[in-house]
């Protein structure tokens, strides 16, 4: 403590007597200026560090979002590929496909008519519909036919379903629907 007071007293006496010599003034200026310069440089470097830290956090968020999008893409691509693998060839007849489905479900003798409708082409795919009329079929057989159409080896889409109950036997129905065979062009 006494040394500090002596140094302060020495500094004041030299300042009052005519100032510091040039070397001491430079040394004292460096002693005072160096910490201030280091503090200012630290603030500048911390600002850059904080900016980089925010940029890294934003990049990590973007990577997480991209990973989620990648997983969603893979799932949707797998579902699309599964559907695309079931598409029939353009030479396959939709009437033959419907007859094969009816034969596999045991409803072939219940089909009264299969009438081809106008083909529709869009975006590299052809939708070839047929109108199917089925009479005196029970609901279980009809559901089995639709299940096999939806999950069979060919992509058959059922639309425009009309079901009418029969008067003589309420357990049997008449159904009219459109079955479309989807194929690539």
Termini gap? 97 Å
Number of extended strands: 5
- What do we call the CATH homologous superfamily of the largest domain? Ribosomal protein S6/Translation elongation factor EF1B
CATH class of the largest domain equals Alpha Beta
Annotation field: number of helices: 4
Give me the CATH fold name of the largest domain.
Alpha-Beta Plaits
Quaternary status: single chain
Content-based structural category = alpha+beta
Largest sheet: 5 strands, antiparallel
Mean pLDDT: 85
Helix fraction bin = 55-70%
Description:
With 185 residues, the chain is an alpha+beta fold. It has 2 domains: 11-83; 94-184, Ribosomal protein S6/Translation elongation factor EF1B (Alpha-Beta Plaits, 2-Layer Sandwich), CATH 3.30.70. The protein is 56% helix and 25% strand. The protein has 4 helices and 5 strands. Strands 1, 2, 3, 4 and 5 form a 5-stranded antiparallel beta sheet that branches. Helix 3 packs across helix 4. The longest helix has 64 residues, at 22-85. The N and C termini lie far apart (97 Å).
């Amino acid at each position: 403590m006494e040394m500090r007071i002596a140094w302060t007293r020495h500094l004041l006496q030299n300042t009052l007597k005519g100032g510091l010599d040039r070397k001491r003034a430079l040394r004292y200026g460096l002693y005072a200026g160096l910490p201030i310069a280091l503090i200012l440089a630290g603030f500048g470097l911390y600002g850059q560090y904080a900016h980089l830290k925010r940029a890294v956090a934003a990049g990590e968020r973007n990577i997480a979002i991209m990973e989620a999008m990648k997983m969603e893409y893979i799932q949707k691509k797998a579902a699309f590929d599964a559907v695309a693998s079931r598409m029939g060839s353009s030479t396959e007849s939709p009437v033959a496909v419907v007859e094969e489905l009816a034969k596999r479900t045991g409803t072939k003798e219940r089909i009264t008519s299969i009438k081809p409708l106008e083909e529709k082409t869009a975006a590299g795919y052809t939708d070839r519909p047929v109108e199917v009329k089925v009479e005196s079929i029970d609901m279980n057989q009809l559901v089995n036919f639709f299940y096999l159409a939806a999950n069979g080896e060919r992509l058959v889409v059922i639309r425009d379903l009309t079901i009418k109950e029969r008067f003589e036997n309420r357990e049997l129905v008449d159904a009219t629907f459109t079955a479309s065979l989807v194929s690539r062009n």
